[in-house]
Description:
three-stranded antiparallel β-sheet, 14 helices, GMP Synthetase, Chain A, domain 3, alpha+beta, Alpha-Beta Plaits
Amino acid sequence: MDRLNQLRGNLAQLGPRKLTALALIFVLVLTVTGLGAYYMSRPNFEILYAGLDREDVSRIGAALKANGIPFDISPEGNSVSVHYGQTAQARMLLAERGLPQSANAGYELFDKVGSLGLTSFMQEVTRVRALEGELARTVQLIRGVKAARVHIVLPDEGSFRRAKQPPSASVVIRTESPDDSKAAHAIRHLVAASIPGMTVDQVTVLNTDGMLLNSAEGDEKDAVPGKTLTLEKTVAKDIQDNIRRTLTPYLRLSNFQVSVRARLNTDRKQTNETIFDPESRVERSVRVVRENSVSQNNSTAPTTSVERNLPQDKQASAEGKQSNDENKKSEELTNFELSSKTITTVSGGYTIENLSIAVLVNRASFAGSGKDTPRPEVVERQIKEIEQLVASAAGLRKERGDSLKVSAVDFMLNENEMGPAEAPGWSEALTHQLGSIVNAFALISVTAMLVVFGLKPATRALFTDAPIPQLEQAEPQLLAVENAVELPFPAIETSEFMDSGGTGLIEDITHREKFKQRRKLEQLIEADEMQAVAILKQWMYAEGSI
């Protein structure tokens, strides 16, 4: 507490002028040091993209901020920069999201085209480009579509052509999910409705893998094999992911490999089935018919025979036929109304014909702690457990003909296995940071020069009083002393002007007045050493003459 009081008293003795100068010097040094430290601590930025639109800049900034990548935007607002070493990561991230999108210029192309010297051909080309850009922007707004490119071919209306050529278009898209055929149908209708005279059959949609997603009705047969192959890959990948998620906690991901082959049936089927229920009958009508008939037939005419032609004395009595018929008929007809059920089944999806799964397991993963080679019975038991897990995860069915093979082999070390990228060496880092190092040395040099040539002289000027006029007036007389004898005289030190019990400027508060006088004497000596020497010589000469 005493030291603080002493320091406060010493500062109060300096006066307002000196305190103001000290404060200005302190603020100046602190400002220069702070600004230098701020600019030196800022990381180096690399330009990620330049010449962007403001919409792209905002989208890129939002994407980088969501993924925790620091970025900086130029004062003009048309370029984005990221830290050194994060350029590749940022570009891959933005490419996944289809950014930037400034390449698809729309109707703003007409803002850059002057009317002076503009031909009809240039105007038509600009119109087609603008229409393509606007359609590409609209297609990219569909959920799941990362990027799109539209090409339009408009017919050239000739004066001597009878047949009219319809307009056509082709669209290339890049989507997030493998099943991108859903968006292709909507894109075809969107493009066809945007161009006069264009039908849906004249629009073709492809993906960036070169696969035909949707085209005219005549090309549907050619697109079916590609769709089937894509669907088989999707189903196989889904089953493979299920198996990996099941085996990873058991074996670790690096100790097994899974291969899945799925055969699908994508034939469209329609089944019509009608079922009648005889138990639920209802009488609709009854018809009863009864018939009775009686007939008698009596014939006396002789029959024609050989005996009739023979002569006889006496003719026999006449003979004939007699028949009696009686018929009774009864018929009953009952009509019933039966309930029926008609089932129509249309199958337009796919069915799995069979699955083939192969699993390779590293034999070393079966070894227990402290054992180099696993026992055969342990391997067989664990292989059976793995087969059960894989069969459950993949949904295998024996009646469908699914096959599963699990083998334990010794994995070879893969020297070409991709690993983490090596960090840049010290020479590369030093080369890249060479500019920062030079800036740091420059900052240190400027600070040192400011202290040596600015702060120190200013401080000396603050604590140095003006020389006493009497001394300057007496200087010619003192220097003109005759018979001055130069005697050896030791240099006067500051400690000699202090009391024997004094401890310094801050500690010696009790002898403040005495210290002021000594301080003035020190200032006189520092102001003109030759004059001080002449005065001392004069004193010595006077004492010697006495």
